[in-house]
Write a structure and sequence with these properties.
Rossmann fold; eight-stranded mixed β-sheet; five-stranded parallel β-sheet; 25 helices; globular
């Protein structure tokens, strides 16, 4: 080591652990994290004269000629339901790879095998070879089965998903393939590099078997390597390969990048999480250290670098700042269901994470290349049927925002153009907040979606809502979104605190136990967990747990053991952040139908415009309301229901009369405004129609014929 530190020695330094053909693998020696070797001056992999560490085994086949770009990668992540397949997120290895290679554009082509079966693998390899575009590397992530103690051989086997022909079958069986047979299949199609996570006891036997069969290099990932470390590693590794580096040189450069910057993510309290994890990716080489890619000419490099291989996402929302946590089983189930169903509906209560789940699935499927286009529609896009068609076309068609339905003789000619342009392209359309869509367009929507689904084989619909699937585009395959498990709930709370910059106060040593009790009591509802994270940042875990228990007792007294109590918990936690006087005013929202106008609130509360606006802004900031413009607030429907359940008979009578009087006053204003600004009045009428109809029914039920006639005349 002292010699390696000599400044006058400018040679490259390398420590090679090499196993001869007649030696048995010294597993412990090879598996040691040699990359962490250091002296008093620091790690040998760092500094001006870094030391490279190589593990070499017998085999690896003949030298392989480098391939011209783009490099083609095959990614396989089977998750048979009958086997313990390791990390619960089936995207655990593939997603950092896909994200890390975004910046390389079309210099890299990635194919994610769907479905991840042995038959699909053989078919994919054969088709790629026949087309003259073979794969250069394989990224594998799945379950490795070691031989039982009573078996004669020590052969490892890899679990693919068994072929599944029926959508009724609930679970996917496993189909095991011995590693030598898998390696033989891959070498037949000239795949020479394999990367996969592997537990420590299997690393050397696995690498030995693969290299002995002709695989040139095996990259072993630690099963718990961080996603950020993998993103950085793969980005550097493949960029170095494309620049003409040998495999070992590219791995060394990638490890050096991880060693030079140990920051991985933000931590609680504003500090960073630093990891010395560059040893988590290890290379096992055979007899030859080959180049995988020819370095392209600069002009060709720039041209491919500027080309994106990812499909269009339309106006799909971004994932929340916390990222997408848990629900991997739901994503996998929906991905499989799209093989058999054209329309899937996600049902769940308010705040359960329906939109985040749909967005995460859509982004994943586009990255995998399963869909070329994604479009996102919500209730704001469906005010009129032509508006829906136009918003859809602007997200999917090449013209983008410049496309309008006005250039066609009629709306159905515009629909025909949309279909003719896209019918051969796999497309996913997301329909959000479906219960807020105006029902008057159901007939046109039924005809529209039926035409597209009947004539567009690769079109899929994904809808979300609280109550149930829409009447159009039936039948829908429904999936109920359940709560987060305790570990995911704890992770979510931690990420919320980090994202909000709200470190919790120091707790006693058993804080984790109290945190587990807290998330179990919260029932895994993401909305409630967001509210509780804020309380934890102020009070600490123990105090928040006691606070939560008191709220639980209060809710049990009011609502009994209602299955929606976690939703009520989210609302109660939000309401308690308001001053008492403001909360008392909110009981008026018990009578709001979908939303309410600020003028109605001001009139019913009997206060000035400024305090009314201030309270409305508080509601919007706490995600209890959404500003729709024109003075209209869309109210969380769960909030109206929750407040309604807390009114006694006297309060109900008092506040109903105040709501009725304020609505009548507002209707009079609309009636007068109709003659001055017709367009604005129509927009307001669309927003307020549920409340106006509720006002009319209320007057009829309370036997107020004169008021009913006057109101009906003004509405007409």
């Amino acid at each position: 080591i002292a010699g390696w530190r000599d400044p006058a020695d400018l040679r490259e330094h390398r420590l090679t652990l090499q196993l001869q053909a007649d030696q048995s693998p010294p597993s412990t020696l090879l598996e040691l994290p040699w990359e962490l070797l250091h002296d008093e001056n620091g790690f040998l992999i760092q500094g001006k004269q870094p030391v490279e560490f190589q593990r070499r085994l017998h085999g690896g086949g003949d030298p392989i000629p480098p391939a011209p770009p783009p490099l083609r990668l095959l990614v396989i992540s089977p998750r048979p339901d009958t086997e313990p397949t390791g990390h619960p997120d089936y995207r655990r290895s593939a997603l950092p790879l896909l994200e890390g290679l975004d910046s390389l554009g079309a210099l890299i082509e990635i194919c994610v095998l769907m479905p991840p079966t042995l038959a699909a693998l053989e078919k994919q390899l054969n088709e790629a070879w026949a087309a003259g575009r073979p794969f250069n590397a394989l990224h594998l992530d799945g379950y490795l089965l070691s031989s039982a103690a009573d078996e004669d051989t020590n052969t490892l086997r890899f679990a693919f998903e068994a072929d599944q022909n029926s959508p009724v079958a609930k679970y996917r069986e496993a189909e095991f393939l011995p590693i030598p047979a898998l390696a033989s299949l891959l070498t037949t199609y000239h795949i020479r590099l394999i990367a996969l996570p592997c537990p420590a006891p299997m690393i050397v036997p696995l690498a030995t078997t693969l290299l002995a069969t002709g695989i040139a290099a095996v990259i072993i990932l630690h099963p718990e390597a961080s996603a950020e470390a993998l993103r950085r590693f793969w980005n550097t590794f493949y960029e170095e390969l494309l620049r003409g580096a040998r495999i070992a040189q590219a791995v060394f450069a990638s490890q050096r990048r991880l060693a030079s910057d140990t920051y991985r993510t933000q931590g609680l309290g504003g500090g960073g999480v630093h990891l010395r994890d560059w040893f988590a990716v290890q290379l096992y080489l055979g007899s030859h250290d080959s180049r995988l890619a020819l370095r392209p000419p600069l002009e060709f490099w720039r041209r491919l670098l500027g080309q994106s291989t990812i499909g269009s996402l339309g106006v799909l929302p971004e994932l929340p700042p916390t990222g997408f946590i848990g629900r991997s089983r739901n994503l996998l189930s929906m991905e499989r269901l799209f093989d058999y169903y054209s329309a899937i509906f996600i049902r769940g209560p308010s705040g359960a994470g329906k939109t985040a789940t749909a967005v995460a699935l859509a982004r994943w499927l586009v990255r995998c290349g399963r869909y070329r286009h994604v479009a996102y529609l919500q209730d704001d896009d469906v005010s009129e049927f032509p508006t829906l068609v136009e918003r859809l076309g602007q997200q999917l068609l090449p013209n983008g925002q410049y496309w309008t339905v006005g250039r066609y003789p009629g709306i159905w000619q515009a629909v025909d153009h949309l279909w003719q342009t896209l019918h051969d392209q796999p497309t996913l359309i997301i329909l959000d907040q479906i219960e807020e869509w105006p029902p008057e367009h159901d007939e046109a929507l039924e005809r529209f979606w039926k035409k597209l689904l009947d004539e567009w084989a690769n079109l899929r619909l994904l809808s979300m809502g609280r109550l149930g699937p829409p009447s159009f585009a039936a039948p829908w395959k429904e999936m109920v979104l359940g709560p987060l498990d305790d570990d995911d709930a704890i992770t979510l709370i931690g990420r919320i605190l980090i994202a909000n910059g709200e470190p919790p106060p120091a707790d006693e040593h058993d804080g984790l136990l109290s945190l587990r009790k807290l998330v179990a009591l919260a029932g895994g509802h993401p909305g409630a967990l967001h509210r509780l994270a804020h309380e934890i940042s102020i009070q600490g875990i123990h105090a928040t747990l006691e606070y939560l228990r008191s709220i639980r007792l209060e809710l049990l007294h009011r609502h009994g053991d209602d299955f929606q109590w976690t939703l009520y918990l989210e609302l109660e936690l939000a309401l308690r952040r308001l001053p008492p006087g403001d909360r008392d005013k909110l009981v008026l929202l018990a009578f709001a139908k979908n939303g309410i106008n600020r003028q109605v609130l001001q009139q019913a509360w009997g206060i000035e415009k400024q305090p009314t606006d201030r309270l409305c802004e508080h509601l919007v900031a706490m995600n209890l309301a959404k500003d729709e413009g024109y003075g209209h607030l869309r109210i969380n429907p769960a909030l109206s229901s929750y407040l309604n359940g807390q009114l006694d008979a006297q309060q109900r009578t008092t506040w109903r009369e105040r709501w009725r009087a304020a609505m009548e006053q507002f209707l009079s204003i609309l009636y007068q405004q109709h003659f001055k600004d017709h367009v604005r009045t129509l927009r307001l009428l669309r927003l307020e129609l549920p409340n106006l109809l509720a006002l009319l029914r209320d007057c009829q039920q309370h036997l107020l014929p004169e008021r009913t006639a006057r109101l009906a005349g003004q509405m007409e």
